[in-house]
Design a protein that fits this description.
One of its GO terms (molecular function) is transferase activity. InterPro entries: rRNA_MeTrfase/Polyamine_Synth, SAM-dependent_MTases_sf. The longest helix is centred in the first third of the chain and has 11 residues, at 17-27. The chain is built from one helix and three strands, in the order βαββ. The protein has 69 residues and is an alpha+beta fold. The chain starts with 7 loop residues before the first strand and ends with a strand. It has one domain (8-66).
Length: 69
């Protein structure tokens, strides 16, 4: 957020939506935090401890606008 001039875009699990909004507004000095769209993301097995070959998860595309005081 410190180096962004306009906005920062980020993907986060939909199930964490309320936590992300609270944390961004409280801890990262953002002017606004909004969900632009909801998407499905196909997460492939990356580590040995992953049980499934792939998992389809719901994610939000967020737009964070930094506050420049």
């Amino acid at each position: 957020m410190k180096v962004a001039s306009q906005a920062v875009y980020s993907l986060h699990k939909t199930s964490t939506r309320e936590h992300i909004k609270r944390a961004e507004l409280r801890d990262f000095n953002v002017k606004s935090a909004e969900v632009i769209c909801e998407l499905r993301y196909d997460l492939l097995k990356l580590y040995k401890f992953h049980k499934q070959k792939e998992v389809d998860i719901a994610v939000d595309l967020w737009r964070f606008e930094p506050r420049h005081d």
